[in-house]
Amino acid sequence: MRLVLNVLWFVFGSGFLLGIAYGLAALICFALIVTIPFGVASLRLAGYALWPFGRTVVSRPEAGVVTGVANIVWVVVAGWWLALAHIVAGVAQCVTIIGIPFGIANFKLVPVAFWPLGRHIVELDDVRTYSAATT
Q: Which residues fall in a coiled-coil region (predicted)?
């Protein structure tokens, strides 16, 4: 079922367009040299935006104050407009009954787009393994 949802998300949902948006954000971050770590995070999020079903985001407990400050810079550089794109796409998709799962997936991506550093994207099957390894 995840494969079917991901293919539909990529083709009919907003996966392709959001992947391009994250790729553009990565290019901007790579061009600014200082924000290269944000470009890497943006590419990681592009993969998640292209194929979100069957994966989830978990927080890294070892992320500290530097990660929080870096997330504030991310919000200014790219996070606010990527989060806004997810909100607009989610609302537009929730208008139809068929689009509701895609809208929910977009709403799930909003906090990640807004505050990406200090988080890992993991397969749903690996969540317990990841949680046990970090505690």
A: none
Q: How many helices (H) and strands (E) does the chain have?
A: 7, 2
Give CA torsion, residues 21, 43, 90, 131, to 10 deg. -170
In which domain, by residue range, is 8 found? 2-134
Total number of domains in the chain: 1
How many whole angstroms separate alpha carbon 22 and alpha carbon 42? Answer: 6
Six token digits for residue 12: 């009919």
| Structure tokens given for 77 | 């550089």
Residues of the chain under the 70 pLDDT cut = 128-135
Q: Please state, in angstroms and rounded to a whole number, the distance separating the CA atoms of residues 37 and 69.
A: 13
Task: Provide the pLDDT for residue 132.
Answer: 55
Task: Please answer whether residues 6 and 51 qualify as being in contact, where contact means their C-beta atoms are separated by less than 8 angstroms.
Answer: yes
pTM (global) more than 0.90:
no
Residue 134 one-letter amino acid: T
